[in-house]
Batch of 2 targets.
Target 1
Amino acid sequence: MKVKPADRTGKVQEYYFSKKLAQIDRMRKEGADIISLGIGSPDQAPSDSTIANLISYAVRPESHGYQSYIGIPALRKAFSDWYRKYFRVELNPDNEILPLMGSKEGIMHISLAFVNPGDEVLIPDPGYPTYSSVTNLAGGIIRKYDLVEKTGWHPDIEALEKSDLSRVKLMWINYPHMPSGTRGSTQLFEKLVAFATRNNILLCNDNPYSFILNNDYHSLLETEGAREIALELNSLSKSHNMAGWRIGMVAGDSGYIKEILRVKSNMDSGMFLPVQMAAVEALHNPESWYESVNTVYVRRRKTVEEIMDVLCCNYDKSQVGLFLWGRIPENVASCEDYVEEILNEAHVFITPGFIFGENGERYIRISLCATEEKLKEAKERIMKTRRKEKGERRKGRI
Ligand SMILES: Cc1ncc(COP(=O)(O)O)c(C=O)c1O
């Protein structure tokens, strides 16, 4: 390149999935039929009325102009009603909710609004890789905190508090947790809010998975004292099967929201009106709609558990969310080798846990975003390669 990119680009790597999907694409071009159980992109449809609303607004000539930076009032009100109904949280739609193009962009806006170069940011390990890359882009310093099976994938707050927290500005949490599938709870959020308050740390919960295989909904914002110190991101990507539509929100005290808007309004304009109107409709889906989506996930989850069994992985059955997280057998060298072997031999792609951090190194993650038929086929293929391997072992070839 004749022109050098900015130094900050060197601080982030190409997203693991973008590299892996390119490899899968090459394998497919060479004729391999790959089943991908990697990414959590819901394959079921949004509700019929959501799509009908999109269409009905898209044909109106007045729908195509720029939209307000803060989203249409009907969308903010719909988010507010949704939070009251499911999370028992009262949010003022005028100034405590900011619609976003998915929660991922919110991670960037929050970081740019609150993290100065040199500020430390507490990031879960394992956790969603975007928290780290965005912190790097914002000039913050990553401070990973451990989440491990032994402590139920909850942070060890006492250990954290023994360390120097004076430069920590922000802490990312994500319950229900991806990738471990751990639920949030009132007690956990109370402890975290108290910790954040004592140490003057902005606590952000990224909450896109509450509605998948779970009906015990918790918001960080329902915790007493959370308004002063906490924000929550939410999204329609997984909860309403609308990942490609790009609709999410951030909620919290109006002062924090104003600062986030200061950043966001300089980067993009409001979302396409028909998308916003469709999201209003989606947020009013009856409870039976969530149940019907979950009925499909329940069946798929059973097959995914069987895949984990075939792979001799241990997993916690109480996991919620769009994935199953399993511990690889002791005799397997690494999750990366295991995943590569499964991809090459069975032509099934599974996410290796190391991409979520060091504490994910002995784990793999399987997505529920594939039809039952595909999942069963994946299981059959893996079983066949395992059988073959066992046979070879018996014959002493490996
Ligand atoms: C923990 C977590 N946060 C945020 C996102 C991004 O969601 P959105 O589509 O709302 O940007 C994902 C997507 O995979 C995720 O797993």
Note: Residues 141 and 337 are 30 Å apart (CA to CA).
Target 2
Amino acid sequence: MHQTSSLLSRISGPASEAWAVGDLAFERMRAGQDIIHLGVGDPDLDTPANIRASLVQALNEGKTHYSPLAGEPELREEIASHACALYGGEITPEQVVVCSGAQGALFSVFMCIAGDGDEIIVLEPSYATYPAVVQAGGATAVPVVLDQSNGYQLDIEKITAAINNKTRAILVNSPGNPSGAVFDEIALCELARLCADRGIWLVSDEVYWSFCYDCDHASPYELEAMRDSVIVVNSLSKSHAMTGWRVGWAIAPEKIAVALTNLAQPQYFGINQFVQQAAITALRDTASSNEIHNIFKARRDTLVNTLRTSSTLSFSAPQGGMFLLIDVSKTGLEGRAFAEQLLDVERVAVVPGFGFGSSMKNTIRVGFLCEEKRLAEAAKRIIRFADGLAGV
Ligand SMILES: Cc1ncc(COP(=O)(O)O)c(C=O)c1O
């Protein structure tokens, strides 16, 4: 009998099943059904033309070779200066490692900072890949549930209570997927101080950095004195509609940057040169990220304003990101049954919330992932379905 690694059980779980409704929807769309698919966190927009042109130019210039393991020096410099503009202070290219998307960065970071017997605090609702990413290296994910009535903001007291001598890191994500919460700057600073005092890493996933609608983006990395404890993970996937390009980065103290670089050798041996060239163009292109931000803000408003007319659906309006998390308890269904039946009856695909943590089984995640008219139509169908179940 051929044996497999114990890793396999650590990377499977509810999250891998959460996409079943979305997959079924794609199958039905291929068979010709007209479905409004709001399930996958992939902007429906094309990557801006100037960024695509930059990749073609890089290919034509022969940028088709192995790249340095930590990334092309020009891109690391560009990321460092982009980060300086975002967070202030001094950030050197040596602190930057280019990775295969923010997802690749998260995986590598947790491999480098936590292992067997260690605990990582993960805030619920949490992005569906977090348990696997944390557990792949042997650590355990310890959930701390945030409160919907408080807009899923940080709860420092609850987080502090979850810390023990096995805690290696706290993973935060703001703007949040799926909550849409943008964490309060003061609370983030308090958390950074707590981590510094206790010798715990604060890993900050900021892939929705350019999608803050009602307030400015805040990051624990803004506190220069705490930077020895903070690791930022980021990418261009959302800000510049570049999900398929797989380019992201980690910004970390140099010893972690070196560890990430060493890990890149056996893992993937560097990121595509031509993609990195285009990433430099993207980082300089604030016009595109502003335009994409404005499109998503308008969509957020349309979705929230329409859904607010239902008394059956309960949610806190997202301050950022591209998702809205809705509690569907009043319909009498859990999120999974709601999502399955919504697809059958109303032809709208959403994600059931159980993949975002066990406390989220009564929720669904709706992405603002299509143009406004269709989004408003989807919202009306969701209300019709939910109100019908609740007998309103
Ligand atoms: C919170 C969060 N982190 C990380 C990722 C992965 O992003 P990337 O495409 O840069 O790997 C996503 C993608 O949806 C996400 O929502």
Note: The chain has two domains: 7-46+287-390, 49-284.
